[in-house]
Specification:
Number of strands: 14
Strand content: over 45%
Largest sheet: 6 strands, antiparallel, barrel
Radius of gyration: 18 Å
CATH architecture of the largest domain: Beta Barrel
Distance between the termini: 25 Å
Helix content: under 10%
Strand order of the largest sheet: 2-3-6-5-4-7
Shape: elongated
CATH class of the largest domain: Mainly Beta
Length: 185
């Protein structure tokens, strides 16, 4: 089974997609008075991106490049000082903005890895091929990921463990599961 990697995302919210860019984090707060922002990274390898020189920040459905002056990781959050944001009031205007990165700057995937956002929208089927629903969100619980699946009647949760999730096909956007009793009801 492929190993899941990177990106928490709630499909119930509608977000504009950008060709050649991936949502890598969200500005959640400001830090200090010099315009530094705190970014919640949507990756399981935030340290890999500490040498990033340019992020793209979404404002009004457009992407704007911002050069990174300095960046550090603390308690799994990025603290970033952008070259053109010099005061807290200016930084405040970017709170809750999505931070994008050019796809060419993403950490290369290893064999069997995929980005978590790639399974959003996947069709969940049982081992006989019966459609059970569609993945609408990936919850990262710490122990294992959990897929929130919108079924015909209700939403149910699927723990991403080998005993239940038997196959993930990124190209076909399908996930085959062996549901335990009570999982779907």
């Amino acid at each position: 089974m492929p190993k899941p990697r990177q990106h928490r995302h709630n499909r119930q919210e509608i977000f504009k997609e950008y060709n050649d860019y991936t949502w890598i984090g969200t500005i959640v707060n400001c830090h200090g008075i010099q315009g530094e922002v705190k970014i919640n990274p949507l990756t399981d390898t935030p340290e890999y991106y500490l040498k990033t020189t340019c992020f793209f920040i979404e404002q009004a459905d457009n992407l704007f490049p911002f050069q990174v002056e300095k960046m550090r990781l603390y308690k799994n959050q990025w603290f970033v000082k952008f070259a053109t944001i010099d005061e807290r009031d200016a930084a405040e205007t970017f709170r809750k903005s999505r931070v994008m990165l050019e796809d060419t700057e993403l950490r290369p995937l290893e064999e069997g890895e995929f980005f978590l956002h790639q399974i959003i929208g996947s069709q969940v089927q049982d081992l006989e091929g019966k459609l059970l629903g569609e993945v609408i969100e990936v919850l990262q619980t710490g122990a294992n990921d959990v897929y929130s699946v919108a079924g015909a009647q209700h939403t149910f949760l699927v723990p991403a463990v080998p005993d239940i999730v038997k196959e993930i096909n990124i190209e076909q956007k399908t996930i085959h599961i062996d549901p335990i009793p009570g999982l779907i009801e």
